[in-house]
Amino acid sequence: MRVSSPRPGPTAAQRWADALSEWAIPEAILAQAEEPPWVLPPALFAADEREIAARAETAATRVARLALGEGGSILDVGCGGGRASLPLQQFARSVTGVDESQEMLANFQAAWGRTPVPHREVLGQWPGQAEELPPSDVVLCHHVVYNVAQIGPFLAALTEHARRLVVVTLPDRHPTSPFNFLWEHFWGLTRPQGPRAELFLEVVGELGIRPQLESELRPHHRGEEVSRPAYLAFARRRLCLPQSREAEVDLALGDSWPLEVPLLHTVSWPGRA
Question: In this structure, is residue 5 part of a structural domain?
Answer without folding.
Answer: no
